[in-house]
User: Fold this.
Amino acid sequence: MVADFGQNIPEWDGRGSTEKAVVGHVPVLLKEAIDFLAVTRGGTYLDATVGLGGHSSEIAKRLGAPGHLIGFDKDAAALERAAVSCQPSAVSEPGDWPTVTLIHGSFAEIGKRVEAASLDGLLADLGVSSLQLGDPARGFSFQADGPLDMRMNPQSGRTAEQVVNHLDERELADVIYEFGEERRSRRIARALVRARPILTTKQLVDVISAAARPMNQAERRIHPATRTFQALRIFVNRELDDLKALLEAAPRVLKPGGRLVVISFHSLEDRIVKDAMRDGAKQGLYRLLTKKPVTAAEEEIERNPRSRSAKMRAAEKV
Ligand SMILES: C[S@@+](CC[C@H](N)C(=O)[O-])C[C@H]1O[C@@H](n2cnc3c(N)ncnc32)[C@H](O)[C@@H]1O
Assistant:
């Protein structure tokens, strides 16, 4: 880790007022992300995954009236919540709050929608929010019964139900293997095709659980449906393609000295982020700020189990 960060940031233990304000959602690696972004008063920062505004509101607090915070999210429901959590905070001086622009769209469009060399920092905290996971009607969770949807933007694209019921067995197995890194993908795909139509998350869980019983202690540690749910979610939301498009655009939209900070939650994402930053460094576009990914401390993992799998990488535009 390179120690050149945080010059303009007051000492802070990462447990600010925002965490309590965004009820039910605890931002992951919050202090670390803010430190690596080196948020400067008056700067322009883009949060590519504004979610419930946990990271965004901490950035906004540090920008003051001359600053600009731009937030993207695919999920209109998340943006509604972010609009509240990114309002002037109780801790800011009256009137000293940045312009906040919230945009409903994919971060894959940043290259087209954001001016070149205009950002002092770009943050992406990938994956799903607690709002999405916690709402059975969205179909993201294998722990609650709901319709098989899984779209981050419920206004567009194919649902998980359409994918599960319309892909042929081989395509389904490939999706489960490629995006879920599930070794039992063929067996699961065969069982899914036989059980069609599958309309709910519970039905999906039951079919997978019967087809892929844990064979050893390691497999018993995670729910048998974990990898298939991850695969379907990534496929439905084109998550890896979007991430590649974001990483391709990042060096163009950052100013020299601007910071790119990405938090990922599984190895497929982290590999893409690592390779993009390393390739950028080889081409002289970036200075790497993290040789190894930053992970959550034990204390954060205890408070917020979701942080256990988080990996954060950061780079500075040269
Ligand atoms: C982990 S949450 C972000 C939480 C946020 N950092 C906070 O503290 O409240 C990820 C968010 O990114 C959004 N998202 C995922 N992929 C996206 C994409 N390609 N474009 C825009 N938003 C995306 C999801 O809808 C979700 O709201």
